[in-house]
Structure formats: C-alpha cells, structure tokens
Queue: 3 jobs
Job 1
Amino acid sequence: MTDAATIASLGLKAVTLTHVRYRRGDRLGHFLAWVSLIPVFISLGGFVSHFLFRRELQGMFFALGVLISQFLNELIKTSVQQARPLHTCAALETCDSHGWPSAHSQYMFFFASYFTFLTFKGVGLATRSQKLVVACVPWPLALLTMYSRVYLGYHTVAQVFAGAALGLVFGGSCPQEAEDCSGLKKANQVDHWCLLRNL
C-alpha cells in the first residue's frame, strides 16, 4: 500500500491554517499564495507582538473582534454549507470544507475597516494626510487577498465578496461597540492606566 493510499484509508485530514497550493511554475500564483497568508502574519506577528509590548485595551478589543468575526464566519459556513469551486477542490483537498463566505476575505476586510477606524481615531499621527496614507495601507492587501482566493481556486467570486461584505459590517461596527462597552472614549487615560500596563 502506498503512503497516499494509507493516509486515505485512515481518513486523515490536514490542518489548513497555512496549507496554500498553487500551480507549479506559476509566479503570480506563488505570490498570491503568500498574499493568502497575510491574515496569519497579522494574527501571529501583529496581535501577539502588540499584546507582549503594549497591552492596550483597544488592541485587545481589535483581536477579540477578529476572533468573534472568525467564529461567526464558521457558524455561517456550517449553516449555509455552500461548496467550494468543484473544478479545483479535489486538487486543493478542500472538497470537505465549505466556501461561503470566504474567511480570508472576511478577516482582511474586518482588519482593514477596524484599522482605518483606529487610524482616524488617532494613533499618534499628527496630520490628516498622515492618517490618510496609513489608513490606505490595508485596503490593497485586502483586495489582493480577495483576488488570491479566487485565482488559486479556493473560492468563487461570490464567496469572496460575501466574506468582504461581512468583514466590512463586522469591522465597521466592532470599534464603536468596543467604545460603548468599555468607555474607551477616554482611551488615552485607559491606555496609561498602571494596572493595565503591568498585566
């Protein structure tokens, strides 16, 4: 029995957090495979380092919002159960998972909208033009991630647009909810609270 046949007979399934495939020799596909991993880099690099070095309440709400958004994505996927593109799911080993809405698109559009809110709320940038430049950074990455999921065959166009729309809705409402729930309208006072800094 071959290794592939043995694995198939055991009914094993891979953890797909960083399992992104592209066609051999496809340079654009290779680039877009890395683009598809941006949510992983943001989560592991951005949020973890932010917690370790800053421990700000707004950053914790941001990460909590991402987790809630991803939980809702899984809940919706389980309820709707729309298949991934049939012409690529076998090669990508994704036929047993659901595609609507795209979690990658939802994540990136949640991140981009929340990040834009925080930028204009004031994160140490003095001028409006500085804020505008910084606020524009995540949007091309969100669009590239959306495109990469269709190009690589993981999702249909409708699935990535649904994910983007949900990400915009959740990302647009979450910062305001965080402020309302925690009194973050006095964020500068909360951020410098000694007890919070020493957690």
Note: Confidence is low (pLDDT under 50) at residues 184-199.
Job 2
Amino acid sequence: MANLNPFSKVLQKQAGRAKERLLQNFGKADRTTDEDFDLHVKNFNKQQAAVGRLQKEFKNYYQCLKAMQVARRSLMDTVSELYEPCWDGVEEFLHKSDIFNRTFEDFCDNFNIQILSPVSTYMGQFPEITHKISKRNRKLLDYDNCRHNMQNLETMKKKEDTKLAKAKEQLEDARNNFDTLNKELHDELPTLYDSRVEFFATHLQCLFVTESDYHTKDALLCTEIGELLGKLKKGYEEGSFRENTSQLETSADSGVEYFNTKAFPSPISCESRSQANDTKSFKVADSISNGEVKADGDSDVLKAMYAIPFEKIQEDIVSSESASGSTTFSTPTTTIERNASLDIEVVDVKVGSHKEEIVLPREKETGDNKSISEKGGNHVPTVDNAAGDVSPMSLKATAANVLYQVQGTYKYAAEDADELSFDVGDIIDVVEYDDPEEQEEGWLMGIFDGRKGLFPANFTSRI
C-alpha cells in the first residue's frame, strides 16, 4: 500500500485540478488573476513567434548559400577547364579561381557559426520558459482548489478541527509553491522580452558585416580576374593567338589539287566513258526486249538505262540552241505527249518483286531497226546515236520552269480568264508565279493544254 501513496497523491491532484477547472469555467468558483503576468505571457508568445520566424528565414538563406556554393564551384571548374594551357596567365587564373571558391565557402561557414548557431541557441530557451509557465498555471489551480476547500470547511455548521488544520496546511503549501514559480517568471519574462532589442541588433549587424566583408573581398577578386581576361583579349587583338597562315595555305593548295584531279576527271576520261555508255545502251534495249533484266546480276545494265538518255539529250539541246540562237517556250499537255516530243519512252521493268520505270530514247521506225522494235510483240526503244530528233524547247521548259506535276482529282471549270479548266486525270505542270507577291493561298500556277493560268490546289494531287 505504501507504494500506491505517490500514485494516489498524483491522481488526487489531477482530479482536484479538473474539478477546479470545471467550476471556474462554469462560474461556480472564482479564479485568481494576475494582469501583469498575463501581459508578460502575451509578450513572451509574440517574441517566441518572431524569433522562430527569423530562425526559419536564416535557415532558408543558409540553404540557398550552400546551393550557390555548389553552383559557383561547378561554374569555376568549367571555366578553368575551358581556359587553355597556351593562353596567357593560365596559372594565375587557376589560382584566383581557387581563391574565388574558398572565399565563398568561408562566407558560408561564417554565416553558420556567427549567425545561425547563436539564433538556434537563443531559440532554445523558449521551451524551458514555456514549461515553467505551464507548471505555474497548474500550481495556481492547486492553490485555488485548496483555497476553496478551506472556505467550504469554514462555512460548515459543524466544524472539524482536524480537517480544518489539514486543509490550512495544504493551502500554505500550495501558496508557497505557486509564489515561488510566479516570482521567478515575473523576473525572467520581462528580462527575456527586453533582450529582443539586443538580439535583433547584434545578429542583424553580424549578418550585414559578414556580407560586407565577403563582398569586398569578392569584388576585389572579380576585378583581378576581369583584368586578367582583359589582357587575354588584348593579346588576341594583337594577333598572339592566330593560326599559322603558311600551314593553311599548304593545306589549301593540296585540297585544290585533290579537288581538280579527283572530283573533275579530264575530258578524255569523260569521252571514253560516254563511248562505253553508248555501247551499254544497245545492250539495255536487247535485254529489255528479251525479258532478261533481273535485280541481281544486271546492275551495269540498269545504270546504263538511267545514265545514257539524258546525257545525249542534253548534248542535243546545247547544239540545237547554239545553232538557232533562240528558244521558244512550249509545254506538252501530258506526260505521254511530252515523252513523244522528247522522243523518249518510259518502259516498265520488273526488278525483283517490284517494277521500275526506265526512261529511254525512242528509236525511229526505219528499216534497220523495225525488227528490234517488233520482237516479242512489244516496242522496246534503244539508243541510236544518229537519232537526234528531240524538241529542245520542251525539255528546257520542263527542266528550268516546271516545279512538279499534279493530276486532276476533280473536274474544274475556269471561272475567270486567267484560270485553267481540266478534267479528272489530266496532268498539269506547276510553275512559279511571274510575280511572287500575287500568289494566292490555295491556288497554284500551272500550264495545261498550251495555256498558263491559275487552278485550285485542292482539286489536284501531286504526282
């Protein structure tokens, strides 16, 4: 039972405090008040909130400084790597870069030691004072409870001296405990509240002095680095870092020699290549007519089919233009008519699993080559060196002016004199506008059936 006495006393105190608090809240019992102490507690709470807010901002500022420290070091490391060893003042630049980083690190350490740590220490005294205030309020409840018990015993008709003496003794103990804590807090709270001025002035002064010292050193260091880079720029302007021009000229000469010998072969080689291609063109026609063109083993034949026709046509154009001295622009209406005017023919050749269109010059129907064209019932043209019946005007118009071709997907009837009319399937040559500023959105300029005019782009599809 003796071990239960401390627990019983604590339980009895808590029950008495709860009862007293309820009576005071319902107005059944009076409450001991102290207006001066209430003012001190109000100032204490305000001061605690202000210091907590300032500590939070200091911590945030310190975290930003640490992030800035990492960013500055990364920047200076990159700049130091880019500063080439052959440049003037490289050793001095690297030395100052290291000092630049260490100066900021010292500033961060000084901020932590001289500002953040003292603020944390100052903030640490508030929880202790808060605990004392709470304890003082509990002792006040005990005092009020003992006081009310004493008043109840004194108002009883039948007074018991034993209970009255015990209640009086408890009242004295409660008063002494309360007075002790109350007096301490009356001394500590005003002192703590008055210290806010010194705290604010000291730590803020330390902050700005530390900032000033750092920025003074940093400004001087940045000035020195700027002067060093100014010398580097001046050396460049004076030509200290220009490349050796003799080496560039030597490399340029060798490049021109290679370009002349490799990129552009001599006329003899071009002539011999043209003769070889003429021989291959006859083999092409025979191979196509006999159905012997395949995807794997006849690569030379396919190359000849693509290379020869246009080389010979271009030669005929040059000779025809030089002889006549003038060129008349004309545009064939369709692809088939254009091929006929150019004296060429498009032949479908099966290569592997797909078909390819091969452009070859059309042979003249003479007695010597009729047998070749009629082999197998299919007309397969071959290249004839004597055949030069090509319309240079049509080819020049196509190569120089026609951008691409479109095919009519819908029938369109011209509404104005400057428009084209066409049916579904008609081929139209698209050319540039005479005046680009007159170009209208959604309209194209084309040539069809010997006329040049506008037509809507959405009525056609590009081939």
Note: The chain has a mean pLDDT of 74.
Job 3
Amino acid sequence: MSRRRDDADTREAALARVFAALSDPLRLRIVRRIALEGELGCGQIDHGLSSSTVSHHCKVLREAGIVVSTPVGNQRVLTLRPEFERDYQGLLASIVRRGSAAPGGD
C-alpha cells in the first residue's frame, strides 16, 4: 500500500512542477511553438528579453520535464519530451488550441 501511495505522491509532485512551469505566459508560448513547429532554438525566443532571462525560462521547462535541450552548433534546441507528450496529451492539445483561438495568435 505504501508503494502505491509513494507513486501517487511522485505523480502529483510531477504534475505540480508541470503546472508551475506552465504558469508563465512566455513559457506557455514557448511550449505552444515547440508543439506546432517540432523544435525551437533558444535564440529564436526573443520577446525583448535578455539571454539570461530566456535561459532561465528554458531551464524551468527542462527541469519540469517538459522539454529536452540539445546542443546544435553554438545554440541549444528545445523539443518536447516524449514522456510529456504522452502523459499530458490533453493539456498539450489545450495549450495549442487556446493559442490558436487567441486574438492575433502568437
């Protein structure tokens, strides 16, 4: 019984990390773009932010288990973790759908 409770606690903690990471509008836009485009270079994330701020947002998404960061040349490319896509299909679909329904899109 204790093992099942530990597994449930672990899943709940993972879900809390995902929601915390996605609570920022910029990180939602980053995830939406990756979902639509397949990948996104960290250098493609501008929004008038410093590179350290962009790096921080990428790190939050990575530590929450949402994205994987891969070095390509002199930049890092973000892709969605397959586990995130599998485990949070409905959430991901909602993120994409909400973005396309917003006035002006992204």
Note: The chain has one domain: 7-96.
